[in-house]
Amino acid sequence: MSAVDATTANAIASSEEAGRKAKESTLLTPRFYTTDFKAMDRIDVAPIRAEWDAMMAEYEGDNNHDHFQRTPEFGVEAQAQMARMSPELRQEFLEFLISSVTSEFSGCILYNEIQKNVSNPDVKALMRYMARDESRHAGFINQSLKDFGIGIDLGDLKRTKAYTYFKPKYIFYATYLSEKIGYARYITIFRQLERNPDKRFHPIFKWFERWCNDEFRHGESFALIMRSQPHLLRGANTLWIRFFLLAVYATMYVRDHTRPMLKNAMGLDATTYDYEVFRITTEISKQVFPVSLDTDHPAFRAGLARLFELSTRMEAAKARGGLVGKLQQTGLAVAGFFTFARLYLLPVKQHALPHQVRMAPAW
Ligand SMILES: [Fe+2]
Ligand SMILES: [Fe+2]
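# fe (ii) ion complex -> structure
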């Protein structure tokens, strides 16, 4: 099968197919989470009260309330730009929109469920604001999917996608990172297309700058929650922090390299883009994590490249099927496990935590 045939065979042509794609549960796809609401109810932000109140005032001010409105650009102009895209690029772009709407909606559901199930006024108010933001984000992306006739039924997704239970501390580590890496991803794309407007192949990218400030602030909220519970940030918990840093970075690297055309169309290359995103995320995460990964270490870079190679071979083995395909998959899974373990054991950098937690989105 030629590349073009393969693309056509996988093409997402209906809302049902887009919904199926959003429901996929693999190592690389965004997940939906649930947690221990009673434990969430016990969060006490007293130790960081001043910074917390300043942050809540920003949520209250809602400076993005008018941002997620569509303009005429999304009509004929966007359709014409899309029509000029190659089928392969179009496919990668649609997959990007589907995984983005899924992860935005994942935040919306989680924050909304916490909000409904706690009585702690600080936590309740925060979660309500974050759910408000994520619902706008998800709705805005979904409108672009609807332009292609493949809008996702979010109600159905909420009812039928599998949920993963994480206890609160894992939610804090994972969600903090996904918010901050989301900021770093959006701002890096925005800056690139600001410098190269001819490469902006869809209007949605113009919205990323103000959008990612929401993600930045969501990350700030989890940073404050973790800093109010210092035991989450020392001792054996630093091993969990290392695990989540690596899991989030490795997943992003493999996923972006599986969709290289999208970055190429923006005049970026997936590897350069990813390391820039890691650099920004690492710099930000020093506000809360006392350890960071040395993403410039040659062994780290070789390890991620190896994970991507194994993932590509895994796809080929799955496509092959049969006993040989199964055996190959097992071998590749073992190799993947050891590659991840070797990456995990690489030396990390240590930092003292700053007195003031909050940072400005200055990238
Ligand atoms: Fe969001
Ligand atoms: Fe967010």
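# post-check
Residues 1-9 have pLDDT under 50 and may be disordered.
The beta strands are 32-34, 163-165, 291-293, 348-350.
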